[in-house]
Each structure stands twice: as structure tokens, then as C-alpha cells.
Amino acid sequence: MTIRPLRAWAGAVLLSAAMLAAAQPAAPDGTPIRAQRLPDGTRLVLDGTLSHPAWQTAPVHDQFIEKDPDNGAAPRHATRVRVLFDEQALWVGVEALDDAPDEIRAPLVRYDGVNRTQDFVVVYIDAIGLRQSAQFFRVNAAGSLADGMHTAADDSEDFSPDFDFDAATSRQPGGWTAVLRIPFASLRFAEPAAGAADSAQPWRILVGRRVPRAQFHLHTSVLVPRDAPSFIATLQPLQGVRLPAQHHFLTLRPSLTWRTQRSRDGAGPTRAENAWDASLDLKWRPLAELVVDATLNPDFSQVAVDEPQLAGNTRFALFFPEKRPFFFEGSDLLRSPTEALYTRSLTAPRWGLRSTWRGGRVAGTAMAIDDRGGGLVLLPGAYGTGAVEQPASRTLLARGQWTDGPLQWGAMAALRRYDNAGRNQVAGPDLGWQIGGGWRARLQWLQSDTSAQPDATGTGLAEGPARRGHLAHARLLYQGDDRREADLTLEDVGAGFRDDTGFIAQAGVRRAKGRVATGWGNLGPFNEFWLNLEGERVTDRATGAVVLQDLAPGIWLTGAHNLEAWAYLHGLARGTAAMRPDAGRPLQQQRYLAAGLTVTPALWAPLLDAELKLGRLADVAGDVPRPGGQLQVSLTTRPLPRLELEPRLGYGWLRQGGRALYAESAHQLLARWHFSATQSLRAIVRYTATERQGSTPDQSTTGSLTWAWRESAGTVLYVGAARSRDGVGPVRRGNEAFVKLQVDVDELRGRW
């Protein structure tokens, strides 16, 4: 079967969209924020105050406007911003005035734990000037920090990247102040033209302030209209910045890890291992636009563990976010209309080399990885995701983007060669188009060629006949200022398609997915109230059989106390919520309620998240739907000012004849004691279990304790210990302790 209909539809989408709206004009510039250079010899102290005389002479920007909940309204609380710079860094000073300073919510939290339940300020900076991506830097009223990248293509924040920056805060009788020091070495900017002091594009900035009270307000330094293509589409100019004479940087971060491990399988002998490991991370900017990253023998023992997920009653692989530092640079560039690049597929690098270019309208990243293997290779199918053991491999991957007004052209390529087990290669173009009038389109085409096939045992890979396959993706979105939204996706994935450096969990299918919605603002007690209709249909390309079909009406609303709630009814009519677990098996008719809730119930419990699925659900191991459900609840609590407790409870079940047929648990308790903004003690206890009637339960229990001292993003010390117990049948036990020290050579040299 060919995909000509999909190609024709994609062309029709773009043609019709062009007829619906004229070419998108450039986003208007808001009132500029002007930066002022510090006089030579002037030194600022990072004390969180604006008491230095230089702050009093800096231009003031106080034209803030409310983004949420009442878009365009005048903010209740005044905010003033000043920007200074010297040869090394930008200095951003923020006065956050407040007529009820006792209500300011200022807890100490972990790095990147600054969220909407706290009073914080955030600075978005796009030093390229195209408003396609922006670095952001947050500090809450207690001085806790967070940072990351915001990408316009999918309008989302990624907290994975860590940039060197410092901030301090100070409480005042009429509110609080914050000062952020953002080194030029941490900003991604282009080289100015010869003889010019400024870059080719103006730098852009947006300053936001979160004020959580009964209503959770967000104030911004420029209006962000409801129909803006993205949150960063209206970043305002940052004028007056002059780059330092020397802006080529080299960062060296060696680390040393000591680890001792003890493990035992069932009644077998105890295995012991003690080891010292050295590693090195390097970041070099030979040009303003070019960043080169290298890592040798990286150690990720300090990386936070993944959140537990319910996974038993599904045949598809679960997605986990990237948390390893080497892969952070240019993480926004790896995003495409599909999950074509997924760095978690690179399991245990021996070494890695990466270059990232951001030069005005052209940007791209490329990397080479020598991987020890040890993970899993995903084998996508129409009805589920298989997996085999991952051998050692060497991988080359690259992705580039070119921005031309409302068009963003892209392409990616990945080649992975396994040791004596064949290869997998994937390549193809993509296109993003801000059509105008609230319309956006995204297209992608990928072609794969794979000779690494499952071996005779079905547990590993071996060289075999090459299989080829394709992935075609087209998406059209509409977001209007009249509170009307629409989203349509068409996708065709060949049976032979495989992307070993991506996350494509299903192949051999055709998918159509859509959503239409209409909303109202300030409707009774709700800030937002939306009526939605969502649908999806997935068919087997080989047989035409339905794999999944779903049509569900629902509501989504927001309100006071950080309330966000949603609910969908699936299977109101027969056939509108059906799933086929495997080829040749019956289509199971489902009927269930899916609902979710996020709210701040109290000051000591700033965030409660809950999701529920309840009704008649498909049983992937059986041939009939059964009464069952899934419940997941997480609660962030602060019983003491310095103590965070985050219990997470997950439970899934199916019943037969009034008795339990299947049960799955995924529970976790995280506790963190903050000695200061840079020092904390973290404890994690986790329990997972899966049990089906008539089979042996699979259980796992893990616990860990880690003390962390974070002087900066580059100088950190970790001391930790962990214990685990898991398995079906013979139980595997393990104990581990480690000490890791990483230093930033430049910081160390500066101190001495």
C-alpha cells in the first residue's frame, strides 16, 4: 500500500491553510528594556538588594501586564526591572512589590524545583533574536534556582539544561527583591558583524513574575496575547547590550567517583566490587555561535531517578525524560514533530563528542557516541513494542534547522552501528509553518534502513537482511483569540520502520487523531472553562484491522487555588472506545471515565496531582474488557519550612467475577531536607509490584539516601547509598555506596 493519500492530504492542508490566512507578519515588538553598562571599575555584590548606586541610575521598566488568569488586565502588584552589564555578565534586578508581604510563598526547594506554587521571578533571554527558543532563569523569593530552555515549536519548557548563573533575594517591608547574574558564557548568541558592536538580530527578553494567592497570577513585562503562536513569540527587544571583547570560553569539569557495590542473586554467592572512576566534561566555544561538548567516561550516579509509572496493562514502551548533563546542550534542537531523536536510547557512553551551532537563522547539533550498551532496543509493532538486549554501539546523529520568517525547515539523520550485529539508520526532512491567523502546520518524513535484526533466541541482535520503512507525519493546529482551538494529526508508519536512536513505539499503522474545543473565560467560579471533543483511530496497515479507536467528549477548567481539572467520557456509544490487543484477537469495547485534578489545597500542601481511570477497560492479556481502573496521586507537602515530602501512589487493577484478576502498584516517597539553598539531604523509598492471578508476583523495593552540596552548576559534591531487592522467583539484592566530586576548573582557579 502506498502513502500517496497522505502526501496529497499534506499538500491540501498547506494550500487550504494558506487560503485561510495571509502569510504571518513578524510578531510586533513590545516596549524595549534597556540595559546599561557598569562604569569601569564598578563591582556589584550579589546580595539580593538594589542598594548599589548603579542600580538607581539604570533605566526602569515597569510596564507589566497580567498573563494569567485575566489576560491583558492591569496587575495588582507592581514590578520594576533594571538591567546592567559588565565584561562578564548581565545583571537583572527585579523589585517585586507586594501589599501583603506576609503572604509571600518562599520555600527552599531543590534545584529546578521552582514552580507556580511559589513567588518567583523568571527572565527569558533569546540572544539569537528570532524568538524560536529562549533560555530561562528562575529564582523564588527564598533564593532557590531553576533554569532551562523554552522552545517555540511545541511551546514547552525543558528544565533539563543547566546554565551557570547565580541569584540572590532579599525580603523588604513592601515585598522582595531579586538580583540575577547571568554570565555571557552561559548565553547562546551570534557573533556581531565585522565592525559592529551589536549582533545581527536584537537580543530579546521577557521578565515574568508569579504571585500565588487564592488566584495564581502571572505578570509579564510585555503582553502575551491569548492567540500568540507561543509564549516566547512576543519577547521584547533588549537594547544597549555590548558584548565583551573576549567572548570565547573554555570550561573543564573533571570529576572523581568512588563506588562500592555488593550484590547477590537468590542463594548464590555475594559479588563485591570497589572502584575509582575518573571522568571529564569539556565545554568550548571557539566561536560565539559554536559550542563543542566532550565527555569521557561520564558518571551519572547523581542523576535523579525516574518517576514510577504504571505499565503492566499495556504492550507499549514508556517514555522517560533525559536527565544526564552531557545531552542537555541543544536539547531544544533535537525536538522535531515526532520523537525521532531520543537520547535515553544511548545507555552508557564511554565517550561522547558534540557540536552545537546557533548562528542567526541557521542552527543545528551533531554528536558522536561510543556506547557500552546494556539497555534495550525497541522493536515497534502495530500492537505493542518488543525489545531485545542492546549490544555496544557507535552512533552518529545530527539535526539542523533553518528559519525563514514563518517557515522553519529541518532535517535529521542518525546512524547506529552495533558490534557484530548490523546497523540502523534513519534520515528525513521536516517543516514547521506559522501560517498566520492562529494556524500552524508541522510535517515530517523519515526513512529507515535496518540490518540489525533479532537473533535466533529473540533476546539480542544479529546481522540480517536489511528492512526499510518510512514514517510520514502531518499536523495542523489552530488557536484563535476567540477561544476556539483545533488540532488534527495524520500519521503513516511502515511495518519495517525502526528508529533505534528515537522513541517510535508503534509501527505498521495508520493514525488519525484530532481535537476541537471551545472555551469561555471568567465563567462563574472558573477562570477558564472548555468543552472538548477528542478522537483517535489507529489501523493495521497490513490488514486494515482497527487497533484503537476512541471518541470522547470532555471538559477542562481552571480556577482559584491553582485549580486545573479535566474529565473525559470514553465509550458513550458502542465502538467509540475500542482496543485490539493483538492481531487476530477480538476488538475489546471499553467504557470508562478518565479524569484529572491539580490544586493547591493548603500552604503546607502546595501541590496535589491526581489522575483516575475507572470503568470497563481492555485486558491486554485476555480477550474481553473487565471492570478496572487506575489511580495515581502525588502530593507535595511542607510540614516544616525546610522539609519537603512528596508521596506518589499508583495503583492499577482488573477484576473478574468480583475477584482481583490483575493488580499493579507503583509507590514512592521522596523526602528532602534543605540545609540551605545549596545543600540538601534526599531520601527515596520506592515499591513496585505486578501480580496476575495464577502467576508469581514481580516485586521491587529500592531505597536511597543522598547528601548534595551544590556550589554551582559545575562544582558539586554527592555522598550517597542505595539498597534494592527485586525479582520474580530468585530475589536479587544489591547494596551500593558512592562519593562523587566534580569541580569547575575556572571556579577553582578564581577562588585561589
Main sheet: strands, sense, barrel: 24 strands, antiparallel, barrel
What proportion strand? over 45%
CATH fold title of one domain = Immunoglobulin-like
Helix content: under 10%
Measured on Cα atoms, how large is the radius of gyration? Answer: 27 Å
N- to C-terminal distance: 69 Å
Structural class: mainly beta
Q: Quickly count the helices.
A: 3
Q: Assembly state here? A: single chain
Blueprint (SSEs and pairs):
Layout: H1 4-20, E1 33-37, H2 53-57, E2 65-68, E3 79-85, E4 89-97, E5 120-126, E6 133-140, E7 145-151, E8 156-158, E9 166-172, E10 175-183, E11 204-212, E12 216-220, E13 236-239, E14 250-265, E15 271-287, E16 290-296, E17 349-359, E18 362-371, E19 376-380, E20 385-389, E21 393-404, E22 407-418, E23 423-436, E24 439-454, E25 461-479, E26 484-493, E27 509-523, E28 526-540, E29 546-559, E30 563-570, E31 577-579, E32 588-589, E33 591-599, E34 607-617, E35 626-640, E36 643-656, E37 659-674, E38 679-692, E39 698-710, E40 716-727, E41 732-742, H3 745-751
Parallel strand pairs: 1-3, 1-13
Antiparallel strand pairs: 2-12, 3-4, 4-10, 5-6, 5-11, 6-7, 7-8, 9-10, 11-12, 11-13, 14-15, 14-41, 15-16, 16-17, 17-18, 18-21, 19-20, 21-22, 22-23, 23-24, 24-25, 25-26, 26-27, 27-28, 28-29, 29-30, 29-31, 30-33, 31-32, 33-34, 34-35, 35-36, 36-37, 37-38, 38-39, 39-40, 40-41
